Amino acid sequence: MGKKEEVKFQLNNKIEVLWEDGNYKSVIQDITNNSIGINIPVCGGKYLPLRKGEWIEAICFSKNSIYKFNTVVLGRKIDGMLIIMLAKPKKFTRIQRRNHVRIPVLLNITCGALKLNKDLNEIDDNQYEFFQAYSLDLSGGGMKIASDKKISLGDILLITLPLGKELLAIKGKVVRGYKDVDSKKNIYGVCFFDIEQGVRENIIQFIFRIMRERRRKGVRGE
Asked: If exposure means fewest CB atoms within 10 Å of the residue's CB, which of 44, 103, 141, 147 is most exposed?
């Protein structure tokens, strides 16, 4: 159920329209007392030409949280570009704090381990010990990985993370670890740091795309 709470829309907030064939990205371009205006949502170069009277489900990305809501298309207007006007929703579902949305996902990754006693300001690639691993889960703030490699709490990792067609290079710190008795793998919790906001946005959007795909497949399987 939607939870009533105040959500202050702001210009340039990112919006994603959840459609049956994917998440269509847009940006808030206009705000009035009763409506918000967005540019035409796009997904992989494909535009979503929303029409007056259509109901949509959407996600709004605010600074610290993510909100999901339903609303109706009020119409269109031209203001230097085509803007789609949506009724300002009165009910929202707060999903989670953005960085804490976590999903189980298996991705093959490459890690470079830098020992804790190294100076981060005086390092190069030769000082990393590179090894292969795979992810067990992922969030905007960190991930859980599994590997045969033994590393220590506090070690710094340079992680090459494949997200779709992109390869992201992310710094992380090992904050916990244990040996899995079944797989015999070393399991580590990694917290990201010094991560650019754009990179974090890419991770969060990847997470929501996977969540959307899994929900859709789940419905089809029922």
From this structure: 44
For 150-202, write each residue's pLDDT tens digit: 999 989 999 999 988 889 999 999 999 999 989 999 999 999 998 887 888 88
Burial-class residue 41 by CB neighbours within 10 Å (0-12, 13-18, 19+): buried
Q: Is the model's pTM score more than 0.85?
A: no
Q: How far apart are CA 94 and CA 148, in angstroms?
A: 38
Burial 61-85 (b: 16+ CB within 10 A, else e): beeebbbbbebebbeeeeeeeebbb
pLDDT in tens, 70-122: 999 999 998 888 999 999 998 888 776 555 678 999 999 999 998 655 554 55
Q: CA distances (Å), 161 to each of 56, 58, 76, 203, in order?
A: 32, 27, 40, 10
The phi-psi region of residue 100 (left if phi > 0; otherwise alpha if psi is between -120 and 50; otherwise beta) is alpha
Structural domains in the chain, CATH included, are 13-95 (2.30.110.10), 102-217 (2.40.10.220)
